[in-house]
From TrEMBL, chain A:
Keywords: Cell membrane, Membrane, Transmembrane, Transmembrane helix, Transport
Iron-sulfur as UniProt keyword: no
Gene Ontology annotations of biological process type: transmembrane transport
UniProt name for this protein: Peptide/nickel transport system permease protein
Keyword Magnesium: no
Signal peptide positions (record): none
Residues that span the membrane, as ranges: 12-32, 120-143, 155-182, 270-294, 314-340
UniProtKB/TrEMBL annotation, chain B:
Domain of life per record: Archaea
Name of protein: Nickel import system ATP-binding protein NikD
Localization annotation: Cell membrane
PANTHER family: NICKEL ABC TRANSPORTER, ATP-BINDING PROTEIN (PTHR43297:SF13), OLIGOPEPTIDE TRANSPORT ATP-BINDING PROTEIN APPD (PTHR43297)
An example molecular function term from Gene Ontology annotations: ABC-type nickel transporter activity
InterPro entries named among the record's database cross-references: AAA+_ATPase (IPR003593), ABC_Ni/Peptide_Import (IPR050388), ABC_transporter-like_ATP-bd (IPR003439), ABC_transporter-like_CS (IPR017871), Oligopep_ABC_C (IPR013563), P-loop_NTPase (IPR027417)
Amino acid sequence: MGLLRYTLNRFLQAIPVMFGIAVITFLLVNSMPGNPVDVMLAEQDASPELIQAIEERYGLDEPLHIQFLNYIGFSWFLAQIGFPGFADAPPGLLQGDLGLSMYYERPVSDLMLTRLPPTLLLMMSAFAFALVTAIPLGVLAATRRNQPADHVSRIVALIGVSTPSFWIGIMLIILFSVQLGWLPSGRLVYPWRDPSHYGYGSTLELYYQTVRHLILPMIALGTLQMATIMRVERSSMIESLQKEYVKLARAYGVSERKILRKHAFRPSQLPVVTLVGLNLTSAIGGAVLIEMVFSINGMGRLLIQSIQTHDYQLVLGTTVVIGFVFVIGVIITDIAYAYIDPRVSYGEGS
Amino acid sequence: MSDTILEVTDLKTQFYTERGVVRAVDGVSFDVKQGEIVGLVGESGAGKSVTTSSVLRLIEEPGEVVGGEVDYMGRTIVGFEDTGEELVPRDEMLTEAQMRDQIRGNEIAIIFQDPMESLNPVYTVGGQVKEFIELNRDLSGEEAKEEAIEMLRRVGIPEAAERYGDYPHEFSGGMRQRVLIAMALGCRPNLIIADEPTTALDVTVEGQILELVNDLQAEFGTSFIWVTHDMGVVAEICDRVNVMYLGQIVEQGPVDEIFHDTQHPYTEALLNSIPRPDRTVDDLEPIEGTMPSARSPPSGCRFHPRCPDAREPCREIEPAFEQVAETADGAAHRASCLKHEEVGYWEAEPLEVEVEK
C-alpha cells in the first residue's frame, strides 16, 4: 500500500518539474541564433508572402507568450471553453502533440515514437550489460580485497571510467567488424518489427540478429557504467562486510556464502541504485554519441539532425522528451530506493 | 551445578599493525560453570571484547589467536602444540566449518554491544530472529517463526506477532537489545556471551534488561559471560568476576569476595570510581591517567604507572596470578599483585606516581 501511494505521490510531485523543463526548454530554443524559416528556405530569395505563409503554418507569427501557450496546450483548452481569441488554437504538449517538424514535414510525436524505442533498447541493454558484469566483479573485488583479483578489476574499472565511449565504439568496430568480421558495425535490428522486414525467415533469427547488432554499441555505451558501478559496488560491499550485523551473522554460524549473498549484499545495493538511477539519465548523452558512431536511428541522432537543420519544433520536442525521461528515471530510482531500504519513508503521516 | 563448561587457559591474541604488534589479550585464564553468570570487567581497551571474540574464533585480520587453550565441554576451540620451532594448531582443534555448524549460535551465542548496529536495516526484525533460530535448531521454517514470535514475546516486546514484520528502525534502542537477547536465547545455546549489552542503553532500560536476563537465566539455566565496564552491573547479576587490565586478568573471584575483600589495587580503584548517592562528584576517585598502549605495556606490573600503591619492585617484577584469599565456599580468589608475594614489596619505598593528565 505504502509503496503504491509513494509512487503516485512522486509522479504528482514531478508535474511542476516537468512544467519547468518545458518552460526552460522553450525559452532556450527560442533564444537560439538563426531563424528557422531562413534555414528552411535555404537562402532563396523568398517573397514576404511565402515567409509569412510558413510562419503562419508553424505558428511563428504569434507573440512569444501565445506561442508558449499554444505549445504547452493551454490555448487548446481555452479554445474548448470558447475563450475569445483562441478559436482555432492547435493541440499542444498536454494533448500529446509536439507540433510539426519543419524538416520531416511530419508530427514530432510520430518521429519520437519511431526514434525513442531504439535509444531505450540501446540504453537498457547497456545497463543490463553493466549491471550483470559490474555487480559480480564488485563483490568479488570486495571479498578479495587487496589481492590480485581486486587489483585487476580496479585497474579495469579505472580504464573504463577514463576512456570515452565513442572511442571504445570505434575501436570495437575496427577490431570486431573490420578486422575480424565477427559482428556488424552499425545499425540495429529491431525485435518488434516483422522478421520479413529484414528478410529473416523466423522470429528466432530476428532476435539472434538483434543481439548480434546490439553487442558492440551495448559494450561501447555500457563500459563506463560498468566501471563506475563496479567501483561503487566494491566500496559499498567492503563497508557492509565490516558492519556489526555481518559480524553477528558470522557469530551465529551463518556461512560466508550466505553472508555475502544475503546479509551484506542487499544493504550495499543502496548506493548502487542511486548511481544507476542518476547514470541512466546522464547516459542519454552518451547514447547520442554511440548512435552517431553506430549509425543508429535513435533519439540522439534525431536531436543532432534537428539542431543542424534548425528544426525548431523538433529540437524543442526531443529536448523536452529527454527531460521527461530524465525525471521519470529519477522517480524510478526513488521508488527502487524505497523498495530496498525500509528506512526510506513513504511520506505517510506527514 | 559446578560443572565447568568453558575453560580458557593462557589465551593470547595479537593484532599485527603497522606500528607494531598489539598484544590485546596476553595470557588470560578463566572458566565458566554451568548455569552461572561470569563477569568480565575492565576499562575500554582492556581486551574484554577481544577475549570473547577469541573464544568464538571470530578474530579477523590483522588479528590472530597466537596461543593458549579454549576448551568447551571437551571440544577444543583453540589448542596449540609446540613443534619445537613454532606453535601449530592441534589436530583435534575444531575446523572452521565445525565452529560454524556446531558451536557458533547453537552452543555459544553472542549479544553485541550496539543494538543500533547489530540488526540488519533492510530485513525485518522477526525474519532475522527466525533465521538464526532456524539455522541453529532443528526446526522447520514455520516452527522457527513461531519460536521467534514466542521469544520476542518473552523478552517483553509488546504485540510480538504484529511487530514480527517491522524493521529495526521502527524499534527503540532498548527494544532492539531485547530483540538481540531473544535471538540469543531463541537459539537455545548453552552459553551466551553478552558483550556490554546494556552500555548503549539508558539506566532505566538497563535495569529492565538486567532483570529480564536474571529471570530468563533462571528459567533456561543458560550460562553467561557478561562483559562490562560497570561494577554496578557486575554486583547486580554476576556470580563470579574477572577483572581485566591491559590484556590480562588481574583479579578473579566470587562477586562478594571481589567487592568486600578486594585484593588488587585496580579493582579497588574501579570500585572507588563508581558514582554513589552518598558521595558527591568531588568524592569520586577516578583512576588517574589512561590505560597505556598494549603495543608496549609497562614493565613489571602493568598497572604500576597508575597504581596508588605502587612501590619500587612493581616496576621490575611481574606479579604472578595466584590464590590470595580464603573464600567461604572454597572458590578461588586470585589476584596478581606483589603485595601478596615475598618480593620485598612491603619493605620498599612507594613510587612517585607520574601521571599524564
